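Summary for the funding panel

The consortium committed to producing paired sequence-structure records for every protein in the target list. Below we show the first two records in order, beginning with the earlier of the two.
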Amino acid sequence: MAESDADVIVVGAGVAGLCAALSAHEAGAKVLVLEAAPEDERGGNTAFAAGAFRFAYNGVDDVLKLIPDLSAEEIENTEFGTYTDKYIDDINRVTEGRTDAALAYTLVARSLETAAWMRENGVRFIPNYDSQGYKDGAKTKFRDESVVVISGGGIGLIEALFAAVKRNGIPVAYQTRAEGLMRGANGIEGVRARAPDGARELTAPAVVIAAGGFESNPEMRARYLGPGWDLAKVRGTRFNVGDGLRMALETGASSAGNWSGCHSVAWDLSAPEYGDITVGVDFKKDSYPYGVVVNAYGERFLDEGADIRTFTYAKYGAVILRQPKQFAWQVFDGKVLDLLRDEYHIRQVTRVRANTIEALAHELYGVDPQRFLVTVKSFNAAVRKDVPFDPNVKDGRGTNGLAVPKSNWANTIDAPPFEAYAVTCGVTFTFGGLRITPGAEVVDSAGRPIPGLFACGSSAGGLFYFNYPGGSGLTAGAVFGRIAGAGAAARSSPGP
């Protein structure tokens, strides 16, 4: 592609960037995608996602728009429910009311139509039975409203979108990192980039920043997230080092959102520094609601049963990072081992096992064994045994009198065999980004859109603070990616 041929340059090739590229092409623009990674590592953090896609729907008829091949038996025997206003409520609740209301509304209002558009572009959705489904008599129900997942997870999503990009003849420049924006009197004029053959200036009247956050940059993590965050492991790609944010801020963009916050989870202690695509999400350890979590002092430090897993897992990595030596152990007894998610059964797992709790105490590397035993004894005595245990809903089976309560799913730790899993903090994506309008336009410090500059995905800030509803990250990337691509195409062909 000649340097002057692009109408729209998209920086980044995860779900947000690819949706932006397809949307811009659909609107008639000539598009060029810049991907910092080599082809075999393409896809950004999207490639490491589990694939849950949280969207607003009003019953099974809306679900059928995404999964038209649902059988009559599945429709009859599955209770999908509805999810409309509660989506906004969930975002407000987990972000403690700080979310940008206009962005949250746009995300929810356009989630179904965007998912249907993705399906038209080859993305396949299936019911989220494996992760969220459970049997209640003859009916299959879901633990929360995250009822669909993308077939093949993040890898399946990336393969489908890249296939659509190829079908539409959209070029992708691999190993090409954007280093700066070119801005003239009338707005954005292109991108300065570095490819394997050297530096280049690529001109275009519109640029979409979809290069993720700064989670793979230890220096920026320590600077913005705080002391100790340079020690966190990274769940996903090694290429999200904040370049898209930096170059937009250097050209006058305003920042927005929770720059000291991020999506972070309980991640296997022995996982590598960056994500391993062959393992994917399975270093994550999300069955903590059914056990207890202790630190090096042998003490509990969080409410393992505060809420449904999808509303707590993305914030507990940060809590683990604040513990002594940045690790913890998740402890389970024989009563709940069959409830542990598949990720607990992979070969690459840091696990110990014993037939007595006393023996387990001495297997927990780095933990004070005597204080751990005191913790377990106190916890067992505090469990409300008058409330029945139900792993599928918030059951109210909590504890009484503990400094750190457990609100749901509290079971005594007393039935062998006992297992424990060592975890640390795994950071997924950062919450701080560029300030955008609901039209995905990047604005300057005066609140005025920068002509020709758009942002989406984790490069845009203001939507998530402290936490997020599980499955809404891919949705946000797709919704605002599609919006950004259409807006960028309109900028490149403004009409009469």
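The next record, for a separate protein in the list, is shown here:
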Amino acid sequence: MFSKPKNIDTAFGQIRWFTLTIIIGCLLFSGLTHYKSQQLTTSLQVKVYILANGKALEAFATDRRDNILVEAKDHISAFHRYFFTLDPDEKVITANIAKALYLADASAKRQYDNLTESNYYSNIIAGNISQEITMDSVSIDLQVSPSYFRYYGTQLLIRTGSIVTRRLVTEGYLRTVSRSDNNPHGFLIEGWKTLENTDTHIQNR
């Protein structure tokens, strides 16, 4: 008569401890899962991947001060590449010049207008001339703002009967501005002018 209630109390106690163990186990498992997921999310947020030529490359965030010289040189190089890379196609010329003018102030627009008035671009198209430019070097004084720079480059004018090599030297100032899709480095070239643009070699084709 008394053994049955004792068995019920024992069974209830076992069920209670078993249930409590399951609950504690679930809480521990949930806590561990949440912790690991937070760790994974944090690690993924730190890593940034960019797609270049069909390959995923990991990018690392750094302070701009660590890369300011590299960015400044690339900004100057990109401006000259857009401004001086020409093909006998009006749309190509217009597209490249438009990209270049986003990177500089009115001084670049004035040079473009002067070249247009002198029929430089019309002659490029009429003569089926292609123009390419390679940066040789650039010096920048980043100790002052705006920063003075001098650019040294080599131009190739590819004509039907010859290839003309030219030495190009320009100068100007770099001012820091906001970054944008059209100006990813956040610089603006000011007071830009050409110091030298002379033929150094002519090769017949």
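Regarding this second record: The domain at 64-204 is CATH 3.10.450.230 (Nuclear Transport Factor 2; Chain: A,). Strands lie at 48-52, 55-59, 130-141, 147-158, 162-176, 187-204.
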